[in-house]
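Here is one chain, start to finish.
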Amino acid sequence: MQHFKNGIRRTLGKRFNIALVGNPNSGKSSLFNVLTGLNQKVGNFPGVTVDKKTGISTLSESFTANIIDLPGTYSLYPKRADEWVAYKVLIGQDEHLKPDMVLLVADASNLKRNLLFCSQIIDLKIPVVVAFTMMDLAKQKGTQIDIPGLERELGVSIVAINPRKNKGIQPLKKILETTAENMLQIPARDFIEISKEAEQPVIEVQKLFPEISNYKAIHYLINHEHFELSKETQEAIESIEERNKFNPTKTQA
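Its structure:
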């Protein structure tokens, strides 16, 4: 049973889930510790010896959330076991963890690599908030970041933070709550123009899964063998690939 309070979608007995993601060494673990404090649990993801860290964060007097610290990853094209763990959660293929929102931590001193991952997440059409770390290091390198301009370009909220010095944490909490209240305002633009790459197979996959974005449909075509889908659905996707001569390697590149 679902009900709405201040625009935030809530399910009775279920706390709002925020997936914390980012490149390795981006400051993600420090932010997780600041947001959750002592309210942390550490276990393993089912079937793999990869740490599953979750914690409860009080974002305001009326809003608490589960923070799910996913293993560090560079992109949505997984190679290692820990990258597969993060990927399956983000793509909606982890039956135990369903994120309502993504908090993406990005190293401001290495923006090019970090923003690639950011654009991929945004194209999944999950609500996203971006937290920039290492702003002082970026400044030392002579990098000036126009945060309002980037917000307009990306269509998401961006907050500069320094978890070790507790800077920017309160503004970040406020923006997380505000984004949760406006869940339906997901960026409309696509960074990757899927229609040029694989328009017809994407359309056909979306007939099987009407709720998924164009970019997520591409991931279903590339990685469906690794997803928990029925035999009939697996065969239907295989048929779409064959009928349209879909080339996963070429499309991914």
